[in-house]
From TrEMBL:
Belongs to the radical SAM superfamily. RlmN family. It comes from the Bacteria. The gene is rlmN. One of its GO terms (molecular function) is rRNA binding. It catalyses: adenosine(37) in tRNA + 2 reduced [2Fe-2S]-[ferredoxin] + 2 S-adenosyl-L-methionine = 2-methyladenosine(37) in tRNA + 5'-deoxyadenosine + L-methionine + 2 oxidized [2Fe-2S]-[ferredoxin] + S-adenosyl-L-homocysteine; adenosine(2503) in 23S rRNA + 2 reduced [2Fe-2S]-[ferredoxin] + 2 S-adenosyl-L-methionine = 2-methyladenosine(2503) in 23S rRNA + 5'-deoxyadenosine + L-methionine + 2 oxidized [2Fe-2S]-[ferredoxin] + S-adenosyl-L-homocysteine. This is Dual-specificity RNA methyltransferase RlmN. Reaction proceeds by a ping-pong mechanism involving intermediate methylation of a conserved cysteine residue. [4Fe-4S] cluster binds at residues 113, 117, 120. Specifically methylates position 2 of adenine 2503 in 23S rRNA and position 2 of adenine 37 in tRNAs. m2A2503 modification seems to play a crucial role in the proofreading step occurring at the peptidyl transferase center and thus would serve to optimize ribosomal fidelity. It comes from Oxalicibacterium solurbis. Pfam families: Radical_SAM (PF04055), RlmN_N (PF21016). GO terms for biological process: rRNA base methylation; tRNA methylation. Its EC number is 2.1.1.192.
């Protein structure tokens, strides 16, 4: 039996090549792409402007399949969270955050994560596997058309778009699942798919320096960097990847990225941890880091830590967060404090998939993580050291 090609896995060029293999002209790929990504079609028979012979061919060889929805919860504040199945007992989360003038979708790129930051529950699960293109873009496809269905909005390019912004801030480190992530990004930007501008798509990374450079060449969307510490000693303990790519190298990469970025600043995310990284001296160190002799144009986004039991960490008190923000702002740095959304459905940063985590499988996941790190050889040698 031949396996069906999932058309959600194909970027625009691959879809043209696929149509070529079926003996079809390139414009058919464009039509197909619009049916898939603008009308949310998964049934080839609905694609009425395609010849019946082509539809019949597609039915026997292809499929349009997004990850299946396991659960769907809406918070009192309108935040909606889906848990989607990515096979072998793994699930990832996709979160929709409605705001007055925009709708932001937070998507996942890996099941688990190998970076293992101290304050992150995804990291604590260990690495499980990379998501495919279809599983990454499938989250946007599923969410956009689910939201429209709920509201009774017609699909198609003229239908009111529900998702205006995408942030890769769900589970996983996008730059350690590079190719599928970039392919999915290209589909988000493509006019025959979602047509989002580069400014409205943000990739968040813990700081995989060589991949930041690669992204600047391949698909420079807005960049958020998870900083969380003002010096190497502190960051080594919070974001283990810092031992491989210390702050000086990370800041250099940010400066290089800015030459290609759609915005003229980098967003630094900073998780506020009580008594760990939230002192006045840390704020002053941050100012020196980004405004010193070689400045990095940036904004700060302070994220109140979302606690989970095993972390042994607590959230900074609100007055402390405000005082910290004030020091940065007094130095002229635009600083925001992230509102916590979807608390009642565990949809906040770092809480994703908390409730589905099967603790009996943590050992198995940790083993897979070590294998993954071994596969990446020297790049991950140091992470193995500290996570063991
Ligand atoms: N791996 C990427 C993207 C996913 S994490 C990265 O680390 O940037 C998205 C953001 O949520 C990151 O800034 C991350 O540090 C933050 N985060 C993780 N766990 C958190 C927690 N428990 N509370 C608050 N923010 C958290
Ligand atoms: Fe991975 Fe990001 Fe969590 Fe760190 S914060 S463990 S990089 S998902």
């Amino acid at each position: 039996m031949t396996t069906l090609t999932n058309l959600l896995d194909l970027d625009p060029a691959q879809l043209v090549a696929y149509c070529g293999e079926l003996g079809e002209k390139p414009f058919r790929a464009k039509q197909l792409q619009r049916w898939i990504h603008q009308f949310g079609a998964s049934d080839f028979d609905a694609m009425t402007d395609l010849a019946k012979s082509l539809r019949d061919k597609l039915k026997t060889r292809a499929t349009i399949t997004a990850p299946a929805i396991i659960s769907d919860h809406t918070s009192a504040d309108g935040t909606r969270k889906w848990l989607v199945d990515v096979g072998n007992g793994n699930a990832v989360e996709t979160v929709y955050i409605p705001e007055e003038n925009r709708g932001t979708l937070c998507i996942s790129t890996q099941a688990g994560c190998a970076v293992n930051c101290r304050f992150c529950s995804t990291g604590k699960q260990g690495f499980n596997r990379n998501l495919s293109v279809g599983e990454i873009i499938g989250q946007l496809w599923m969410a956009e058309f689910e939201l429209r269905r709920t509201k009774g909005i017609a699909p198609g390019p003229k239908g009111e778009r529900q998702i205006t912004n995408v942030v890769m801030m769900g589970m996983g480190e996008p730059l350690l699942n590079y190719e599928p992530t970039v392919t999915a990004l290209k589909l988000m930007l493509d006019d025959n798919a979602y047509g989002l501008s580069r400014r409205r798509v943000t990739l968040s990374t813990s700081g995989v320096v060589p991949m930041i450079d690669k992204l600047s060449q391949d698909c420079p969307v807005a960049l958020a960097v998870s900083l969380h510490a003002s010096n190497d000693a502190l960051r080594d303990g919070l974001v283990p990847l810092n031992r491989k790519y210390p702050l000086r190298e990370l800041m250099d990469a940010c400066r290089r990225y800015l030459a290609f970025a759609p915005r003229d600043f980098i967003t630094f995310e900073y998780c506020m941890l009580d008594g760990v990284n939230d002192g006045d001296q840390h704020a002053r160190e941050l100012i020196a880091l980004v405004q010193g002799s070689n400045p990095v144009p940036c904004k700060f986004n302070l994220i109140p830590f979302n606690p989970f039991p095993e972390s042994g960490l607590t959230r900074s008190q609100n007055p402390r967060i405000k005082a910290f923000a004030q020091i940065l702002m007094d130095a002229g740095i635009v600083t925001t404090i992230r509102k916590t959304r979807g608390d009642d459905i565990d949809a906040a940063c770092g809480q994703l998939a908390g409730e589905v985590k099967d603790r009996t499988r943590v050992q198995e996941r940790m083993k897979k993580m070590t294998e993954y790190q071994e596969k990446f050889g020297k790049d991950f040698g140091r992470i193995v050291e500290i996570s063991s």
